[in-house]
Structure formats: structure tokens, C-alpha cells
Amino acid sequence: MNAYNISRLSFKIATQQIVRNYAFKSDLKIKWVRPEKIPSIDPRKSGDCAKLPPVDPKELIREFRKSKELETADEMVRSLFELGNNPKYLTTNHYRDAFIKEVQRHPLDYGSMEAKLARMTATIRCFQEHMAQHPRDKMVKVQLKELIEKRKKFLKYLRRWDYRRFEWILEKLDLIYKPPPAKFHWITRKESLKKLTDIHCEKLRQAKLDEYRKTLEEQQIPFLEDAIKKLEFVRQEQLDLDIPVTVTLENIDDYKKRLNELKELREEAKLKNENEQL
Asked: Is this entry keyworded Ribosomal protein (predicted)?
């Protein structure tokens, strides 16, 4: 590139108007707020609609509920075998048993698909309550994510091979199954602002149309009254000049009928508005 071309290019760059065409700011005062990001462990995303039912802390551990010695034991000794005075995992086992009994096929069913889903659901909800109190517990968070994904795979399998049982288990466990989207779409600010601008313009257009319609409706009664007067005048002039009459009485009566109907509708609408305000 010679010196002439370099000087010409530098002159062109210096005189060219620089236009910024990115990160534009709308003058329509349209505010866009980024949608809230819901974590995968949240019940709104995992599909767990119901919360865990309250458990009596004085209830005995499962292994000692039928113990005859505890029925006559001292209160201090009995408290050692209550759920409220024992580790949390025993309460989780209590919820697992309760959930499994709701869906098991027979009293000894602990390995069917329904029993597995009930066990996982009870554990997931216990973990979710734990994460609500201790949001920084990373170990439980990882376990909860893995368990939710595993339950999704089980539900997907059951949905494919036995849809009636799939619907039944969702109703029993109060779950919502959310299949993954067929196509992922990332939400961006620019695209969202374009959509909001289109909605804003559509609202403006509709507002102007409504205003214009209201103006036309207000002019309907004066227009009909004026049309009736002109038709009567034209008919009378034709009769006086003894020329063919083009305006018949039926035409005038038709306009009068439309005027009376319009006045009645306006009166009914006015009374209705007054009653609603009262």
C-alpha cells in the first residue's frame, strides 16, 4: 500500500461518522428485568408441590414401636427412643416408610418402581427442608441434585412404559413432571427489549383505535339525526317540485328505528355504569 492510499484511508476514517449499534437504550421507557434464575434443587423446579407433613417428635423409632417394655418404661427412658431426641436420618426413614406405604403394591413391596420413587421423593423433600435452613451445605446440595436427576430418569422410564401408573404416582406423591425442552433458548436482553417494544407499540395502536372508535360512537346519534332531517328535506323538495321521489318513507323510518335503538342502548349502558359505581 503506497503513501497515497494510506493517507486516503486515514482521511476516510477521520471523517467517517462512528455509529454505535450495540447495547442500544430505548427512549420508550421500557424496563426489562432479567427473569429469576430458579435453582434445580428448588421445589418449583423439581416439581415437589407438597411439603412434608408434620411429625410428632414424641413418636417412637420404627424398630421400637411394638416394644412392650417401653409401654411400662420410665418417661426418661422412653424419651431416649423418640424421634425428636435422635438423629435426623431416623426422621427421614420415618417419612420414607410413610411415603412407601401410600404407593406399595403389597405390604412387603419395597423394590417396585413406585416404592423407589416414593423413597426418593421423601429423601428429596427432607433434603430440601435442610437446604432451606442450611443453604451453604454443599455436600447435601450435590446429593440432592443427583437424587432429583435420578428420579427424573425413573419418571421418564415409567411415563414411557406405563402412562396410567405414571399419572397415578404423580397424583399420589403430589409431583409435577417437567420434561426437558426439545430446544434450548437463551433469554437475552436485546431480544426481550424487541418483544417489549412490539407489545408497547401494539398497546399504543390499540389505544388509538379505541379512542377513534369512541369518537365515532359519540358522533353516531348526531349523524343519524342530521341524516333524518336531510332525508325529510330532500323528500319534501321532490314532492314540491313534482319530480320522481327517490327517498321513501321506509328509508326515513329505518333511520329513525336505528336512532331509537342506539339511544336505548346508550341509556342501558349508562344505567349499568351507575349501578356498578354504587
From this structure: yes
